[in-house]
């Protein structure tokens, strides 16, 4: 044994253990996010149980969020009565829903005081547009206040009617967002136009009056158009609210819920696995393509995905040419010497500078300095409300471009150094100019390296949050940065962002417990996005290396 | 190419394919042009990178620079005092500096334009036959002034400015009003002259304190009450006689809470009366505030918020005092700090409107600009041969106005944007108002106007180092040991799997790590505290145990797994240990900690926050492991093979080779890996932001949180007013992070390059 220790073998095992721990941590983390994120969309059974609280008996209805074993002491400190002799306690976190009725969404129950779990067939779970989920027993369906189905038939009647009302509600939302949004946008533009006319000193009084009158006529026309649309909308809305359902809650209250307020309804305990899978797909799709509701704690993350992608695209457009050309300069044009060496080290170090520093720079230079001056010059009619002088898409993209510049430069340079000297010299010897050698030989060959750089830059940018908090993301953006109104891409608008969404919903939301699964799901989307990008980059790089290995041999 | 064409020239068609001479020239010119354009574009991008790099640094620096700039006073404009040649008792200007006021001893009130001395309007306050014998003003922002008359009465007035915008042009209309309705109010029913007087307006009403010629100290309060019928403010008067001060008072001050009255006397003493119940008012504390027997308090003023008192003496000394509760919970007059001494007797002190600064005039014609919190004297400047009689600073701190014995008013613009920052204020303990001792505090904003911003960078720096320290404590062993094993012992096949896995970790967004740390790990660790500690102890033990078992395992089994797969074999061990510790955790709590380890911590006296340095250390350690791992792994892997083979050939065991040869050779690379990892930990924002409570504490307790420079920027930057001291300090934090990581990375990079050169030479 002593000689075994002396040989040092145990220590090799020990440092090998460091690798095991690291690998387990990485995989465990990915697994945790995957399980929690994907679990969010699976319909759990609705549990009914009786809770004995002293003499009182309460019927509990809901889904179980977590179950855990804790020490009795900790539970006692939380204010529960646990028998003295007991040391460990099982407890369950129930999602009870019905926030509008009881005021509490989630509640811990001690396992010892719960009866056996029952799974009633008529229990339904409603996902509502407001107030979170509803749990109860379906009793009847009403149309315009008249009962049309009761008991067993009620759920069959509910499904098509819910589909109908959901379609109508979606139509009203579309109308509000697109048609009425367009009119509001046009009215706002006219208002700014009038202000611009007032500020224009080259016009005389008459011209000014004429122009303003013309603009005002346009506003009146738009207002009329709005009125027509509004009437249409009112009818549509009323039609969407035709049906209602009657349900009983676990404590016996009779509740009428309008179908216009319901997003989806499930009778979880009667669902078969294929049904659950279909429901899973539908929920996942709604999550990816829907808009957030209830202070971002419910609904989808489409605007966040869209904002992230738009921002990253604009960033790529800026950073790719700049970074690639800079790398070409450093490798092909600049005289290699101490100066290029310093520049190279500095660029390299720029990658290690904390991202928040870029945010500070972006806020001070881009937003306040550049944006402020742009507003003074081009948008005086909107002052003092800032246009470009406040955080927005373009500044976020530019800041990230600066942040990811080293990634592109380093990667491209690496590709350029791998190109065999013979290729360059061959081209030059055939009489090609330096530019021709560059564009026709060097750049095509090193494209994969540039792609690698770009993909890595995109991956880094997509996951970066800290600088964006200063230069352009927002909790809830009323409009997407790209829409049907001229000039179609609104560079000055603030955007939503996946990473910031995680931070905001996880840490700033009023109902953190309800929002948690959604945060995991969002995190999963972001992790997947970044993993896919990184793995692509690694694959491209490996292919590139293989290619040159074979060429140089 | 043309020569090839001519020599072969088998068919005329080939010759026709070649461009003609003229076209060739054109083509050559175009090619040349393209070449030039490319050169230009590429160089522009190259220089662009250098410029943007420089721009970041220069811009951050330029935003910070004003913090270092000293206050400066422009050349003054002088004009004769408006409104007669009676003594000037008070001057002040309004926020746009389009109007200013001068109160004269004879009751003349003149409004004028301070920029050119043009008279705007004039009133005369009637003293009803009496004479003014004393004068005082309330906090400058209230505009209150009071004359004490020779017949025991007083005149309370207020200068106000209406700002209107007729035709988009600003128009400032000065006016004089009487808050009590009537100008005259009786203070002393006995009709004695009011030798010294003061006034203050607070939330509860107006208070006036005065000393009569026969030495009585009187307090009159006007409690404001809103009338139910008319909606107007009414005042209810009540008056009290306080115990007389021990010596002849020269100055009195009343604070806005109407609880504290301070009296300065001719013998250099300051006396404190507790008047929270005026009928029971008592002299609570007396203290000599000036050194020397013949020194008297010549001027005294409250700073904004009426907590700090600035005492100016006849010896030119300027010092700050405020009341601090002692262990018996009694307020004591406490000397907080002193400022640079003036060469002559202090004649007048005027506090700033919105900050804790003040301007001082002395009998030698010097103006001094000081700032309370930062204990800095910004300048003492001689502006006159005559004593300064009155001085006033503008509400926006951008101009000074003063009168001296020459019968003229002098007005000069002032640059004094960032007096709050000084080396002392940023890095030393500072005694802030309302605190019982000097402390390191970062608290940049609050809801009230009177708030004293606390800009100590110490808590933030300590927090940054604390977070980075615990992260490195977690990451360094795992990453470095892991790197050595992966590079040197691991089988190539497994290395091909492990390296990308750990490197993928680097790409994980830190917001996800922060979110998991804050919402999943922090509560988990809190409820499984024993597990966190038992893992640290049990993990290595179980690994050694597994190694020992394997060592003694039958040969047949050992042949199944070649060396280099130890890490893979340990995976079940690690999982088992982790599971065991977590399962045992509640039992350990019951056996050793009375059921709850967290409660046990509280009982022992250790503060425990749920989001603490332990959580941050693990999460941020997780984030820096890949950085350290991949650089260290490179360094170890590239150690020339002949070195290690030589060592092994000489009979050293693999472990001895690692310790004696590999580590020694690769140590600069490992060092640079640690540096880069440290740089990353210092600047990481999201993890710290989400996994700590962000409270700026100054300690290294692993169970408490911290606030780092970077998280502080993320939290406060969006709210900081552009151009304010706070804003610039956040830029300073950014600049410090930038410079620090840049230097760290440069050192690491240079070390690495040297190492690379060494390897190639070996």
Describe this structure in words.
The complex is a heterodimer of chains A (about 550) and B (about 750). By secondary structure, chain A is an alpha+beta fold. Chain A has three domains: about 45-120, SH3 type barrels; about 140-265; about 310-500, MetI-like (MetI-like fold, Orthogonal Bundle), CATH 1.10.3720.10. Chain A has helices at about 1-5, 10-40, 70-75, 100, 150-200, 205-240, 275-290, 300-335, 340-350, 355-380, 395-420, 420-430, 435-465, 465-470, 500-510, 510-550, and strands at about 45-55, 55-70, 90-95, 105-110, 125-130, 135-145, 145-150, 245-250, 255-260, 260-265, 290-295, 300. In chain A, strands 5, 6, 7, 8, 9 and 10 form a six-stranded antiparallel beta sheet that branches. In chain A, strand 8 (about 245-250) and strand 9 (about 255-260) form a beta hairpin. In chain A, helix 5 (about 150-200) packs antiparallel against helix 6, helix 8 (about 300-335) crosses helix 11 and helix 13 packs antiparallel against helix 16. Chain A is flat, with a radius of gyration of 31 Å. With about 750 residues, chain B is of the alpha+beta class. Chain B has two domains: about 70-440, YVTN repeat-like/Quinoprotein amine dehydrogenase (Methylamine Dehydrogenase, Chain H); about 455-760, MetI-like fold. Helix content of chain B is about 40%, strand content about 25%. Chain B has 17 helices and 32 strands. In chain B, the strands form eight sheets. In chain B, strands 1, 2, 28, 29 and 30 form a five-stranded antiparallel beta sheet that branches. In chain B, strands 7, 8, 9, 10 and 11 form a five-stranded antiparallel beta sheet that branches. In chain B, strands 3-4-5-6 form a four-stranded antiparallel beta sheet, with no helix packed on it. The longest helix of chain B has about 50 residues, at about 20-70. The two termini of chain B are about 50 Å apart. Chains A and B meet through helix 2, strand 2, helix 3, helix 8 and helix 9 of A and helix 3, helix 5, helix 6, helix 7 and helix 8 of B.
């Amino acid at each position: 044994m002593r000689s075994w220790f002396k040989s040092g073998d145990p220590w090799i095992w020990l440092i090998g253990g460091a690798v095991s721990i690291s690998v387990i941590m990485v995989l465990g983390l990915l697994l945790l996010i995957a399980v929690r994120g994907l679990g969010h969309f699976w319909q759990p059974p609705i549990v009914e149980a009786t809770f004995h609280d002293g003499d009182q008996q309460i019927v509990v209805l809901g889904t179980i969020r977590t179950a855990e074993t804790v020490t009795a002491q900790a539970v006692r400190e939380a204010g529960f009565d646990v028998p003295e002799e007991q040391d460990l306690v099982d407890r369950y976190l129930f999602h009870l829903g019905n926030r509008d009725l009881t005021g509490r969404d989630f509640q811990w129950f001690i396992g010892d005081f719960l009866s056996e779990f029952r799974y009633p067939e008529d229990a339904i779970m409603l996902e509502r547009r407001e107030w979170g989920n509803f749990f109860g027993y379906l009793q009847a369906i009403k149309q315009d206040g008249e009962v049309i189905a009761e008991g067993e038939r009620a759920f069959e009647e509910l499904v098509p009617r819910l589909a109908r009302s959901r379609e109508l509600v979606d139509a009203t939302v579309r109308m509000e967002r697109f048609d009425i949004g367009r009119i509001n946008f046009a009215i706002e533009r006219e208002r700014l136009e009038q202000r611009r006319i007032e500020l224009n000193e080259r016009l005389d009084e008459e011209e000014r009056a004429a122009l303003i009158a013309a603009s005002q006529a346009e506003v009146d026309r738009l207002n009329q158009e709005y009125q027509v649309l509004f009437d249409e909308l009112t009818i549509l809305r009323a039609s969407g609210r035709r049906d209602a359902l009657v349900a009983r809650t676990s404590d016996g209250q009779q509740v009428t819920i309008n179908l216009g307020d319901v997003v989806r309804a499930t009778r979880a305990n009667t669902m078969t696995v294929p049904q659950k899978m279909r429901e899973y797909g539908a929920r996942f799709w709604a999550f990816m393509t829907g808009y957030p509701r209830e202070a971002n704690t419910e609904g989808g993350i489409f605007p966040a995905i869209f904002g992230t992608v738009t921002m990253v695209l604009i960033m790529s457009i800026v950073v790719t040419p700049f970074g690639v050309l800079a790398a070409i300069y450093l490798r092909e044009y600049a005289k290699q010497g101490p100066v290029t060496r310093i520049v190279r080290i500095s660029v390299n170090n720029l990658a290690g500078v904390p991202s928040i520093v870029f945010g500070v720079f972006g806020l001070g230079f881009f937003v306040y300095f550049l944006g402020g001056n742009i507003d003074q010059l081009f948008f005086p009619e909107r002052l003092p409300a800032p246009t470009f002088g406040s955080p927005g898409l373009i500044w976020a993209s530019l800041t990230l471009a600066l942040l990811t510049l080293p990634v592109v430069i380093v990667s491209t340079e690496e590709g350029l150094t791998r190109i065999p000297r013979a290729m360059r010299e061959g081209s030059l010897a055939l009489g090609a100019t330096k530019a021709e050698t560059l564009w026709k030989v060097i750049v095509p060959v090193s494209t994969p390296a540039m792609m690698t750089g770009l993909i890595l830059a995109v991956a880094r940018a997509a996951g970066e949050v800290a600088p964006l908090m200063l230069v352009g993301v927002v909790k809830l953006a009323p409009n997407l940065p790209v829409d049907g109104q001229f000039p179609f891409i609104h560079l000055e608008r603030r955007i939503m962002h996946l990473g910031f969404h995680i931070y905001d919903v996880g840490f700033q939301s009023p109902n953190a417990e309800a929002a948690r699964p959604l945060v995991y799901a969002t995190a999963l989307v972001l992790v997947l996005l970044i993993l896919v990008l990184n793995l692509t980059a690694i694959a491209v790089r490996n292919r590139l290396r293989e290619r040159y290995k074979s060429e140089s041999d | 190419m043309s020569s090839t064409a001519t020599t072969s020239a088998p068919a005329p068609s080939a010759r026709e394919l070649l461009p003609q001479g003229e076209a060739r020239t054109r083509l050559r010119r175009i090619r040349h042009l393209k070449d030039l354009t490319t050169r230009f574009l590429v160089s522009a991008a190259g220089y662009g990178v250098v410029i943007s790099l420089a721009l970041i640094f220069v811009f951050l620096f330029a935003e910070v620079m004003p913090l270092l700039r000293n206050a400066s006073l422009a050349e003054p404009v002088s004009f004769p005092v408006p409104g007669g040649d009676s003594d000037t008792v008070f001057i002040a200007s309004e926020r746009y500096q389009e109007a200013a006021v001068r109160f004269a001893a004879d009751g003349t009130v003149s409004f004028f334009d301070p920029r050119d001395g043009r008279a705007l309007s004039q009133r005369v306050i009637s003293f009803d036959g009496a004479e003014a014998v004393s004068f005082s003003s309330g906090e400058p922002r209230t505009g209150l002034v009071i004359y004490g008359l020779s017949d025991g009465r007083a005149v309370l007035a207020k200068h106000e400015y209406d700002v209107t915008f007729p035709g988009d042009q600003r128009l400032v209309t000065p006016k004089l009003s009487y808050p009590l309705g009537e100008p005259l109010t009786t203070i002393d029913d006995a009709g004695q002259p009011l030798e010294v007087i003061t006034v203050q307006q607070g939330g509860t009403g107006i208070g006036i304190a005065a000393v009569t010629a026969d030495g009585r100290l009187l307090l009159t309060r006007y409690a404001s009450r809103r009338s139910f019928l008319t909606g107007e403010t009414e005042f209810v008067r009540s008056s009290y006689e306080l115990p007389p001060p021990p010596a002849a008072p020269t100055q009195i001050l009343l604070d806005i809470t109407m609880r504290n009255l301070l009296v300065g006397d001719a013998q250099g003493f300051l006396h404190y009366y507790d008047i929270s119940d005026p009928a029971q008012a008592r002299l609570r504390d007396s203290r000599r505030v000036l050194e020397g027997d013949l020194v008297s308090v010549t001027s005294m003023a409250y700073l904004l918020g009426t907590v700090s008192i600035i005492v100016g003496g006849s010896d030119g000394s300027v010092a700050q005092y405020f009341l601090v509760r002692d262990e018996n919970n009694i307020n004591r007059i406490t000397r907080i700090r002193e400022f640079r001494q003036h060469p002559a007797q202090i004649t007048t002190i005027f506090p700033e409107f919105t900050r804790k600064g003040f301007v001082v005039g002395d009998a030698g014609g010097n103006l001094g600009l000081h700032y309370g919190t930062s204990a800095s004297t910004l300048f003492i400047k001689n502006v006159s041969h005559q004593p300064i009689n009155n001085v006033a600073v503008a509400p926006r701190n951008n101009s000074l106005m003063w009168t001296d014995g020459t019968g003229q008013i002098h007005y000069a613009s002032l640059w004094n944007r960032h007096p709050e920052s000084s080396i002392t204020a940023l890095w030393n303990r500072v005694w802030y108002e309302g605190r019982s001792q000097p402390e390191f505090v970062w608290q940049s904003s609050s809801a009230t106007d009177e708030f004293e911003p606390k800009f100590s960078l110490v808590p933030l720096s300590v927090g940054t180092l604390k977070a980075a320290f615990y992260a490195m404590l977690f990451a360094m062993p795992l990453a470095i040991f892991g790197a050595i094993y992966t590079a040197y012992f691991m089988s190539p096949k497994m290395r091909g799997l492990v390296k990308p896995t750990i490197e993928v970790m680097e790409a994980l967004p830190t917001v996800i790590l922060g979110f998991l740390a804050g919402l999943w790990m922090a509560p988990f660790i809190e409820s499984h505290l024993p597990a966190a500690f038992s893992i640290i102890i049990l993990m290595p033990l179980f690994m050694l145990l597994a190694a020992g078992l394997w060592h003694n395992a039958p040969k047949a089994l050992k042949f199944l797994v070649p060396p280099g797969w130890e890490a893979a074999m340990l995976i079940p061990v690690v999982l088992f240990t982790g599971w065991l510790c977590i399962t045992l955790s509640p039992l350990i709590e019951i056996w050793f900690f009375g059921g709850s380890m967290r409660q046990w911590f509280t009982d022992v006296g250790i503060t425990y926050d749920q989001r603490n340095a332990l959580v941050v250390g693990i999460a941020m350690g997780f984030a820096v492991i890949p950085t350290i791992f991949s650089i260290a792994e490179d360094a170890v892997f590239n150690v020339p093979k002949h070195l290690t083979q030589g060592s092994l050939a000489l009979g050293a065991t693999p472990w001895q080779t690692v310790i004696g040869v590999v580590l020694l050779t690769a140590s600069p690379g490992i060092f640079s890996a640690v540096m880069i990892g440290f740089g990353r930990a210092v600047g990481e924002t999201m993890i710290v932001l989400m996994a700590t409570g962000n409270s700026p504490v100054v300690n290294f307790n692993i169970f408490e949180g911290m606030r780092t420079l970077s998280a502080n920027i993320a939290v406060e930057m969006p709210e900081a007013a552009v151009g304010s001291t706070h804003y610039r300090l956040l830029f300073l934090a950014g600049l410090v992070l930038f410079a620090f990581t840049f230097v760290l990375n440069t050192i690491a990079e240079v070390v690495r390059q040297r190492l690379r050169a060494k390897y190639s030479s070996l």
